[in-house]
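Sequence in, structure out. Go.
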Amino acid sequence: MNRYASAPEAALQGSMRDFRTPKGANLLERVNAFYEWQNLRRENGLWPLGRSTEAGPRRACAARDDAGNRMEGVNFASQDYLSLSSHAAVAEAAQQAIRDYGVHSAGSPALVGNTTVSLALERKIGDFLHTDEVQLYPTGWAAGFGAIKGLVRNDDHIVMDALAHACLQEGASAATKNIHLFRHNDVEDVRAKLAKIRATDTENGILVVTEGLFSMDSDVPAIKALQDLAHEYNATLLVDVAHDLGNLGPDGRGHIGLQNMIGKVDVVMGSFSKTFASNGGFVAVNGRGVKEYLRFYSSPCTFSNAMSPVNAAIVLKAFEIIEQPEGRALRAKLMDNILNLRRQLGRNQLETYGEPSAIVCVKMGNEGLARLASRRLPELGLIANLVEFPAVAKGQARFRMQVMANHTPEDVALAARRLRAAHDAATAELAELATPQARAIA
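Output:
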């Protein structure tokens, strides 16, 4: 039985967009309207964010919502694509790093924050991606923001996919007012924007920004076409490989590898938090001058502590596993689970987005329906993330199922059936509510 009463209309409507630009002279008081709306959702079991696990990102785990309510179930909410966070060799590498280095970097990369293990990781990533130089960052977010803010100046231009990650968009906004968003994965729109810029400005730089795999739609760009365009218009291409590096492709090199672009992309940036069982990120480039410039002009490098030696050791061990036969086997197991989940969801008449990847997004659409489905999941024994605005457009709410290599076929089948049950229960519940929104959907 659902332990919540019928949801009030206000908790099923609205989005975070409504509170993005609060009005009022008092900076602290004016944010309370957001909390009131959020807390109404929380009190009715409709606020799915801020949850915590009790024992890490296991394939099945216990978790609590941010009101302290406990849930247990199969876990398709955590980002641990190759299941390396619980790998014995990774844990041993972390423990050895603590014995050798302690737990803290104790300085920025510019000021004695590097260690021999972080320098070894830079060399490993450079070899893996066939680039000359790599600069590490304390988080993936810092790498995306820092790469753009470090390279782009006020009069330069950024041509960016409209669905690029928030760290890239915020880095762009901090760097220049000349931001040109192109239609998602539309190469011809990129060409048109580059041509328009170069028709009037041949003096300033242009950075073209995309992702190797877009996490909300599980689709990919034409990387070679974008790199060719960048060269044609004297621009620079940056590709964010946070979600595909290490876990996709026969050798784990993601879509840059699958598209035969290893060593051919101007700037590659990535995060370790999806596949490599760690915090941290990197920027890989060709040319020592670019690395040194980023180290001293990219604020997250100069004015933030370096990645900890423990995190660096974890990622280094993860790369070693990824390059071994074990890594290939883990990727094969992950892809089996991905294809199985997409197949099982289809059999349950649930629509998925994009191409096969560790991110399997399941269409809900209406936010009210999605919120009602989400509050059913804990009692059904499924932990999954509801995504709505601002992560996706209004009216395009979805569940972002994140697959792990150690999910079992039983986990996958249960997840699909339970999500279908939650959807059906939410549809019936919404139809019972006497609101124009409910009548339109029922």
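Check: DSSP finds 16 helices and 14 strands in the chain. Residues 156 and 204 are 5 Å apart (CA to CA).
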